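Working notes for the structural subgroup meeting. M.R. asked for a predicted model of this chain before we commit to crystallization trials. I am recording the input and output together here so anyone reviewing the notebook later can reproduce the run.

Input as submitted:
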Amino acid sequence: MDPHHLDIVRLAWSRELGLPDDALTDRPGRATRADPEADTLRFLDLRGTSAMVGPDWILRRAEPLSDRDLTEPATLLGLVQDRSVRCSGPLTLWFTSDYQEPATGRPPVVSDDRGHVRELETACPPDDVTEAHLSTRDRWFTILDDAQQPVSSAGYSEFQGFVADVAVLTAPLFRCRGLGTQAAGIATDDALDSGLIAQFRAPRDAPASCRLAARTGYRELGTYIEVTASRSTL
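Returned structure, recorded in token form:
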């Protein structure tokens, strides 16, 4: 990814975290923002720059730690071990601004019907459905088999106006056939056609998702993680 596109990604994430537009430019130090109303610490490490947003009491505890330490769930949970908390992530952040290589062979039948997405969701494990939340996205592209049944789908939502946040869901019986990569490529190219940079979030402990991102032409550039304290223990 060229420096201009990387700057756009940094701008999008700065706005997502409520930071100044230039908070994630190349400069030493970690950008921070205290939010007295928040109950969640959000940490981002993005291509050598980092940011941390959350309640002041967690920020003070996290300040001495390195960026690498803050991407470890055990470290974050240790910061708030005196509270009731839950940790989400870490997610690896993958990006691309390049179109996919032209596909060979017979093109798939692709549907833009939300009903096909919902039908696919009923065939997938609930955790996978929750992670992808495809049916709530702005656009989706669902590959149908010869019986017109949905087997894999990818969709995206705009993220701060500059980035397309892409997700993929494939029915368990049709995984490991390249269908997820194919669906992701279709959604990615559409996002690029719309003038957006494509982003893919993959759990760090999900190697299959990371391989899919890499096969689709994405490049890993960052990590995002958050920890939330229960309101009853604040």
